Amino acid sequence: MKLLKEKVMTEGIVLSDQVLKVDSFLNHQMDPVLMREVGAEFARLYAGEKITKVLTIESSGIAPAIMTALELDVPMIFARKHKSLTLRDDILVEKVYSFTKRETNEITVSKKFLNKDDRVLIIDDFLANGEAAFGLARVVEQAGASVVGIGIVIEKSFQPGARLLEEAGYRVDSLVRIASLENGTVTFV
Ligand code: 5GP
């Protein structure tokens, strides 16, 4: 996606060889025009797939996910993050290790919002090791629903997430793919 690539080039801050900061348009301040384009692109990629729900994880996935859901005319659900939780039987729970926070959170989705007939498109802001996407996929599968695909705004292709998800049989669509963040520079695939 040209507009997204330009944003990453002009506003992305390389924090290390592993981490890109994009807090001016995605992770803190959000660019609604860009998010609308992102939503339109995911909707185009999944047109005809009979998606019934878009699922993401709070908080940075919410903007791209809601714009995608708006385009596809389906509800959007965001999994909530908790550090610890008393188990309740009306929620789906999975453990997810956070790449940026370096801690394990439990993510939860209310059972009433996912059922076995749902065809779910998972959306997230970044893909690194795939922990968040695998956790969301497990939530969908716990509900007996189907993961149709995983839409990622920024994939760091030098980390193993995309490969692991594809090896597990998931369709992955990333709008930009970064080959390297070495020497403080963003290099696209
Ligand atoms: P994964 O679960 O694939 O290892 O990492 C993806 C999650 O970690 C995303 O939900 C995102 O919030 C966060 N993340 C991973 N890498 C980066 C990065 O380089 N920059 C930012 N801002 N977030 C990242």
Automatic annotation (TrEMBL):
Query: Which keywords annotate this record?
Result: Cytoplasm, Glycosyltransferase, Purine salvage, Transferase
- Record keyword Glycosyltransferase present: yes
Q: Write one Gene Ontology MF term.
A: glycosyltransferase activity
Location in the cell reads: Cytoplasm
SUBUNIT field: Homodimer.
Q: What gene does this protein come from?
A: xpt
Gene3D superfamilies reported for this sequence = 3.40.50.2020
Q: What does the UniProt function comment say about this protein?
A: Converts the preformed base xanthine, a product of nucleic acid breakdown, to xanthosine 5'-monophosphate (XMP), so it can be reused for RNA or DNA synthesis.
- Please list the residues that bind 5-phospho-alpha-D-ribose 1-diphosphate: A128, N129, G130, E131, A132
Into which family does the record put it? Belongs to the purine/pyrimidine phosphoribosyltransferase family. Xpt subfamily.
* Positions bound to xanthine: L20, N27, K156
Q: Which PANTHER family match?
A: HYPOXANTHINE/GUANINE PHOSPHORIBOSYLTRANSFERASE (PTHR43864), XANTHINE PHOSPHORIBOSYLTRANSFERASE (PTHR43864:SF1)
Q: Per the record, what are the reactions this protein catalyses?
A: XMP + diphosphate = xanthine + 5-phospho-alpha-D-ribose 1-diphosphate
Q: How is this protein named in the record? A: Xanthine phosphoribosyltransferase
